[in-house]
Amino acid sequence: MRDWRTDPAFEMCRALGDGADLASFAGGVFDVRAVVAGIQSGAHSGLLLDAVSWGDFPHGDDARKAVHLLHTGEGPASHATDVLGGLCANDSRAAVALAVPFLILIATDAHHSQRAAALGVLSGPARARHFGVASRDELLLHRTDPRRHTPDGYDGYDGYGIEVTGYPAGWSVAAARAAITAEAPSLLPLLNDSDPTIRIDAAYALATAAGPDHTVRTGLATRFATEHDAIVRAALLLASAETTRAHAHPPTVRWLRKRWQDWSEAPEVRLAAAIGWLCLTDEPAPQDLHQTINAFATDERAHAMDALPWMNAAAGSGEPGLRRCIRCMLHPEEPEPSDDPWASPL
In the prediction, which pLDDT does 174 show? Predict the structure, then answer.
């Protein structure tokens, strides 16, 4: 495997480390936002995998090979998704952001054998530092577009920092989110797919789209009105809460409260609504919310709800995501569980 420190973009990272102005690189060949925008501009005439400057970015060749494997269906899909997911988990998202337009094409092709695999990983680079995060302050949080916070429009470090390679993490996240936003009209129909896993992962991806016109929120609510699968309904609520965290919408906050108070809803739905509502308000958790969680958050249900990518990402130290969210949100004074098999009991 080639050392990523020989990739051309690493020279930019070194320069930034030496104090160079990030704005001087904006829009250039090492700005993944500009590169992804260029990829998308040719989307309708057919994307060419090898026309992209993968080698300019850290681990770019690995990402290209993974996309090629998914596109051709050569070998198990897990070989490709492990690479792409691993890069995001290791805080190296820039090259995976380049892959997003290609992954969307695969995911939205109803006849492609790897569409589920592609859909499951395409929104990975659109979320920053979300693994193991389960607090009210950070779960479902979309840090806003860094370009909105400085006079020159390019403070790429706002709330994101740098990736392990030294690349500005905000640029990777913004590039992935822009690609998903642009293709939201092609992703929304996946909410009606016959496969519940596709519906869940479509909701997870769409939750990262910038949607000030509420198109995504409307699509999620429309599907919720006809969805019968409890876990998918829970996914639609979490996606609605996530997009509402990025674009405030008080009616959605009230709607989520009604969902966890509704005794006719399935327990998974009520729990997801409670988690989403807690992330969208600073109000103290009322007694009936505690009662809902105490009644339904069994160990068995917590493990079952790890099928939701939000809960799966929140899990850590052997603690299911739902349990971790409940502890961090309602009982923050409790210590982190230890997954050290040699640790002595207290």
Answer: 92
Q: What is the DSSP string of 47-59?
A: --GGGS-GGGSTT
Contacts 24+ apart (CB under 8 A), 9-18: 9/56, 9/57, 9/58, 9/94, 9/167, 10/58, 10/165, 10/166, 12/167, 13/162, 13/165, 13/166, 13/167, 14/166, 16/162, 16/166, 16/168, 17/166
Per-residue pLDDT tens digits for 266-303: 999 999 999 999 999 999 999 999 999 999 999 999 99
Q: Are 68 and 122 in contact (CB under 8 A)?
A: no
Tokens 């695999």 found at = 117
For residue 316, give the 3-state DSSP assignment. strand
Q: Is the pLDDT of residue 13 over 50?
A: yes
The answer to whether the CB of 173 falls within 8 A of the CB of 93 is yes
Burial 135-144 (b: 16+ CB within 10 A, else e): bbeebbbbbe
The closest alpha carbon to 126, from 281, 250, 24, 243, belongs to 243
Amino acid, res. 300: E
Share of the chain above pLDDT 90, in %: 66
pLDDT in tens, 198-211: 999 999 999 999 87
DSSP category for residue 345: P
Dist CA 33 CA 97 (whole Å): 9
pLDDT for position 206: 97
Q: In 3-state terms, what secondary structure has residue 168?
A: strand
